[in-house]
Amino acid sequence: MSKVYSTDELIEILNCERKACLDGERLNLxxxxxxxxxVVDHFLKPDAIQKFTAYQDFKAAVxxxxxxxxxxxxxxxxxxxxGKTLCYPRVDDQLMALPQDMEILxxxxxxxxxxxxxVTVDMDLYLSLNAGKDYRRVHPAEIDAIAQRTEWACIFKxxxxxxxxxxxxxxxxxxxxxxxxxxxxxxxxxxxxxVKPGKxxxx
Length: 203
Prior knowledge:
Blueprint lengths: L6 H16 L15 H6 L2 H24 L4 E8 L2 E8 L7 H21 L4 E6 L4 E5 L1 H9 L3 E9 L2 E10 L2 H4 L9 E8 L8
């Protein structure tokens, strides 16, 4: 029986392949950057499109491998804020979530939300709009309403001695397709930022 690659091994393979594509060692020569507008076509670089397409093709093959061999896309992360620590699952940015991964993410959502509220008490909350270009101040009840309609949650932090921003991503569908509406409407997410009182999000 042939070896089945683990989640960590697939991540390493994808990292190596991405580097090879960026270095120009892998190209999809059939990828043409023409959109039919001579002015726009002039600025499109064929090698950049060929590198990007080569990596996307390889990543799609890895996703198929995950499905064929039932290799999870989940990695476990740990976050510590204000003396509290949470270990939580998330899908690696380069991998896809299998159906059983989605169940793990759904089961972890309530614990993640509870942690978010504990560590962001007394912080100002904002909803990210227009792919992070704008923000609107929100209240916890608005976050709760969106949380009821989503499947999974993810949390990130940016912290320095005088700065703290905590991001809560609430999403549905494939996490890898949820950002920037790439998989809309089957996958998507809303992002909330918690910042110190009087500050605005910058991350």
